[in-house]
Amino acid sequence: MKTILMLPGAVFFIVCVFFFSPPAWAALSRADWGAPQVAVSESGGTWTIAGQKQVVRLDARTLALDIHAQGVDWRLFPSGTNDMIVKFHGRKFHMALADARDISIQPYDTGFKTGVKVTLSGFQHEGQDLDLTLYLTVCLQGANEELVFDTAATEGQAALWQLQWPEAVDASKVDYTVLSNNKGDLLPRNWPKRVLPIRNGSAKDHSVLQSHVIEDWAMSWWGFEKGRAGMMVIVETPDDAAYQFSHPPGGPTVIGPRWRDCLGRFRYMRACRMCFFKEGNYVTMAKRYREYVKNRGLFVSLREKIAKDPVVARLIGTPQARIGILFNQTTNSDRYDPKNHYRLTTFDQAAADLRAMKAAGMEHAIVIVSGWARLGYDRQHPDPLPPAEAAGGWAGMKRLAATCKQLGYPFGFHDQYRDYYTDAPSFNLDFAIHEETTNGPATAFAGSRFGDWKEGRAPFMRHWDGGPQSYLNARFQLGHLEKNYGLIFRHGIHPDGIYIDVIGYVPPDQDFNPEHPTTRSDAMRGEAKLLYWAANNLGFTATEAGSDWVIPFADTVNQSGGVGKQIPVPLYQLVYHDAVLVSFAQGKGGTKDLMRGILYGGVPQVPVNMKGIGAKAYELNREMAALNGRVGLLAMTNHEFLNKQRSRERTTFADGTTVTVDWMAMTVRIKPPLTSAELDATGMRKAR
């Protein structure tokens, strides 16, 4: 029996149009509404993602990836035994992604990126089923068809503790690996020495590669140069990331993403992208990363920082000077030297030294005061107050602050809130970070380099001058900062800024203490609050080295960590020159350190006693200050080597200024040359 629905004529017409006329959107091509022009197909166990520029092939069995990018081939290794570390019933073991008994691959299309989704399940270990499923997506996205990877997991009793996906690039035919270690490095494929980015070569150093350690990466990317072509990997979720790395003597280099646990589990989606350049080098890659951080809100320019706090403008082109008060190593420090463990400069002597520096021709300076704590430098943090009595106590500190104001020198204190000393009045093991287990070596950096131990689950070290210490959970650091500076303010002392040690150099800490569990992301937010508070209540903000997560919050960083150890290149400055000031001091490299500071457009860090540095070094500092006064707010647009020996190199800034250094002749040439007015504006008299 049929049921016929009778409708009025007008309604019937509308229904006919709806059901029998093709909808307007059906005639649109994917290009009409902005979708990627990408086709996905499968043949013989190989999935092909074909765009207009890139063609990607995925082997369904081995998960190897081959990429044909505008005439250049790039290959990623297949699945291997070290792909994953899985934690199951308290044990950790390695597995391969291809160990999954069930591998499902299907087309995947979000409307803005197109590719495939790989679902991996059915893992077993020693005959036991693992309740673990992985979801991997591989897609081409955007007009440049960048290859983007998302990774997520469903975890049960089996937790995904570490994952290496996508696999490392086969670099056997790569000319150079581009690393952001120590602010920029080129590593030739056949470099004759073994390379260990994080370790200092000593047998006891068991530090592991991880994000946000300046020696591992100043920025969350790396790349490869092959002939005239290049490609780079941007880690979009860097908080719990690292990279697998190997470079034996003679190479080649192996490097690929490594996702680390977040409080013992995978927890959230991880993402990275590969960018391909038919013609491009490390400068091209740095500029792509600059575009990326700008688009993600990770880039805050110095001009924006000045608009928020005008004191930051006083940092441009201004030499930085450090003055130490009390050096007083405890006998419990591994570095204790019975012949050289105590030095004292009173606050009044320091004030006299600054007056002498002014009289000697240093009209402008930013002063950082260290060693002001009751027991001296690196002692009793986070409770360093009251000021060292032997140096003059509160009254002496107040006189030094008044002297800085009189001389027109903005000043700040060198301070520290991560190292948690056991003799600090407030020390309580509950507030120190706790690692995952009581067994195994401590993993917290820098104890992993200098010697460490555990008490329960809390890691300890005793390398620095203050002796035994753990690491303060970042959630509690701001409270100590507020406590300390509240007391300083009540004594009538008002610094113009602060230098907060280590947070820009070392990785953020996890804390497994169930009373205040803290992820690495939580720790970074906690330490960012230190810089936020300082900017709002003090003035300029400074930290050590400056891994790029601190860029939005820091005005200046120092050159701690040095430059690249193979072929140094200014990747950091190519990205961030106009976002943060980098200071350069004359160190073991002598005048070369100052020449590089000029090449990189930095600001000089000068000794308070200028008499001992020599006329040439004085003049180089003066030129660095003058150049920074010109280009400090401008982007670095290019860097290039001018000969095969790389003994001559040149940087270019947005106004066309170039700096050329000849390392053989030991000369620096700035074009257009610095004017007398620019040199005079530094407030530094011409060297005699």
- The termini sit apart by 112 Å
Sheet of most strands: 10 strands, antiparallel
Which regions contain 5 or more consecutive residues with pLDDT less than 50?
Answer: 1-20
Which outline best applies?
globular
- Compute the number of helices: 12
- The amount of beta strand, in percent, is 25-35%
* Overall mean confidence score, pLDDT: 94
What's the gist of this structure?
By secondary structure, this protein is α+β, with helices and mostly antiparallel strands. Helices cover 20% and strands 30% of the residues.
Question: What do you see in this structure?
Answer:
- There is one protein chain.
- The chain has 688 residues and is of the alpha+beta class.
- Among the domains are: 47-167, no CATH class; 302-636, TIM Barrel (Alpha-Beta Barrel).
- 20% of the residues lie in helices and 30% in strands.
- The protein is built from twelve helices and 40 strands.
- The strands form nine sheets. Strands 8-9-12-13-21-18-17-15-16-34 form a ten-stranded antiparallel sheet, covered by helices on one side. An eight-stranded parallel barrel has the order 22-25-26-31-32-33-35-36, surrounded by four helices.
- Helix 7 (477-490) packs parallel to helix 8 (520-537).
- The longest helix is centred in the C-terminal third of the chain and has 18 residues, at 520-537.
- The radius of gyration is 29 Å and the shape is globular.
- Residues 1-20 have low confidence and may be disordered.
